[in-house]
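Re: that chain you flagged

S.,

Sorry for the slow reply, it's been a week of failed gels. I finally had a moment to sit down with the sequence you sent. For the record, here it is as I used it:
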Amino acid sequence: MSHTKKHNTKIFKQLFIIFYFVFGLFPPSAFSQNSQTAKAMRGDGIYSLLKRHNIPVSELQNFINLNKERLTKNNQLVVGRTYFLPAQEENNEIPQMTAEPSANKKNVTHKIFGSKYEQIEITDQQLDGAVYYLISGHGGPDPGAIGKYGEYQLCEDEYAYDVTLRLARNLIQRGATVYMIIRDPNDGIRDEKFLKPDKDEVCYPNLKIPSGQLSRLRQRKDAVNKLYAQNRGKYQRLVVIHVDSRSRGQNIDVFFYHDERSKTGKKLALNLQETFDSKYRQHQPGRGYQGSVSDRELFVVKNSYPPAVFIELGNINHKRDQQRFIIENNRQAVANWLYEGLLKDFGNNR
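Prediction finished late last night. Pasting the structure tokens below so you have them in one place:
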């Protein structure tokens, strides 16, 4: 065989190998998708791989279609092998949740609230022009405080998130624009007593929550401040919701912190506290309400641009306080009262 023929044969073989690798191991459809890839780790299944990269499990079939030549016969991953991830829009759902219904309709849809609550009827425009940034405490790798109720664990991040979602829905119903800074792709509003913990929460718009505490706080602060700049000139408020952890014998009411430098933040906290005091007088006369307002140096509250309030819903270790969290109607009542306090603050600052 001549030198030229040998050279041509070698080139043909090289092209064939390249062609096989590209169009055999990776189907042509993959190249119309996002080129992001991920390597399977020991113990990975498709679900865990998708979850680690913040891709909803609804993309399972798309993942299989993209990688059918790379999976085993039973659609199992091979450790160390690289897989294409399904293309995702920058945000699966518009993170800014507004009360802007389509033409001739009086409701909006926001899937973050779950299938039971995603349809929201806009009842009025009392909060038109108001912008709220809502942060539920902890999330992702950090469950926050953990209480015990019989055989069940009560994780702070799950209960704070549920109350925050309910508050967000109330605000949207009255015409506000709401940003959920901590977001869970699949929990939605839940009516169960005992909320199953997970670690798939993300930070706005769709960022993995880091494990380091200071990194988590900076991430939330940065998200709020960037949005604040975009909404400059509007009425804007930041609401941070947590559940406290104290000794089992210490019963506490909902209480509020603000940054000592912010008169507007203090006014916001007082409007909320006065609303709770009024509600307890109305619904439980003679009980008394001891929820306080005070300043405290809290990283997100101190370093975020909008006036802010930090709310502790109660003691996750106290039996009576736990009823405030585990009973669905009580979680909704807390969200309703927070909404009324925010409405009062909006009216006082117009």
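What I noticed first: Confidence is low (pLDDT under 50) at residues 15-35, 89-93.

Talk soon,
D.
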